[in-house]
Amino acid sequence: MLELLSYGPTGWGDEILAGAGMTLMVAVLAYLVGLVAGSLTAAAKLAGPAPLRWLAASYTTIVRGVPALLVIWLLFFGGNGLVTWMAGLFGYGGRVELPAFGIGVLAVGTVSGAYAAEVIRGAVQAVPKGQLEAARALGMHRLLILRRILVPQALRFALPGLGNVWQMTLKDTTLVSVITLAELMRQAYMAMQSTRQPFLFYLTAALIYLAMTSLSDMGFRWAGRRAERGVRRTATA
């Protein structure tokens, strides 16, 4: 077993670690895409005109209502078909294949953004309105209120939920193996197919995922404690 997990031509250790690195790359980029999409969607739901509110609500309802795997398939096959059709308009007769890495990041980020939008929207609504009204009474303009009051307060409320969204995003990267992206689960599958040792490689992948999620949980807990500094707690009987 140790030989199968070693580096070099006889072991799969280097491939497994490379897959773990690919998993982290996809997860981090997809999470950033989701944060941007979620922030814009939350802003549209909270303060956008009626058409934008409708689009934002449709996005979160549809994406959260269908399996993440289906979103990946739709973007993979639909994106390739759309680009091939557009290339055909300019005289190109072949098929265009979009990079699996980009499709994976976009698909997982799309799902992540739908959940992040609801977390951010709820966090913004949790900010006491009295603080915003006091800031306006003091003559603070919108950008200053956003920077000094709304964003810091909303971030404090949103961190636990955003931590859950990150964990979900990290685990959703397992689904991009279906589009042959060489992330951790794909590498574990290839190793299993080559050696006929499913328990060894899937257990190794599970332990790596557990390590990544545990470290992530510790990081978000630390960030939450930092965000709570200076917050007055009300004593309860």
Give the termini separation: 57 Å
Largest beta-sheet characterization: none
Report the mean per-residue pLDDT as an integer.
Answer: 86
Strand content: under 5%
- For the secondary structure, the number of strands is 0
In N-to-C order, the SSE pattern is HHHHHHHH
User: Any guess at the CATH architecture?
Assistant: Orthogonal Bundle
Short description:
The protein has helices spanning 13-47, 50-65, 68-89, 100-126, 129-137, 142-172, 184-195, 198-227. With 237 residues, it is mainly α.
Descriptive account of the structure:
The structure is a single chain. This protein is mainly α and 237 residues long. It has one domain (13-124, 158-227): MetI-like (MetI-like fold, Orthogonal Bundle). It contains 8 helices and no strands. Helix 1 crosses helix 4, helix 1 packs antiparallel against helix 6 (142-172) and helix 3 (68-89) crosses helix 4. The longest helix is centred in the first third of the chain and has 35 residues, at 13-47. It starts with 12 loop residues before the first helix and ends in a 10-residue tail after the last helix.
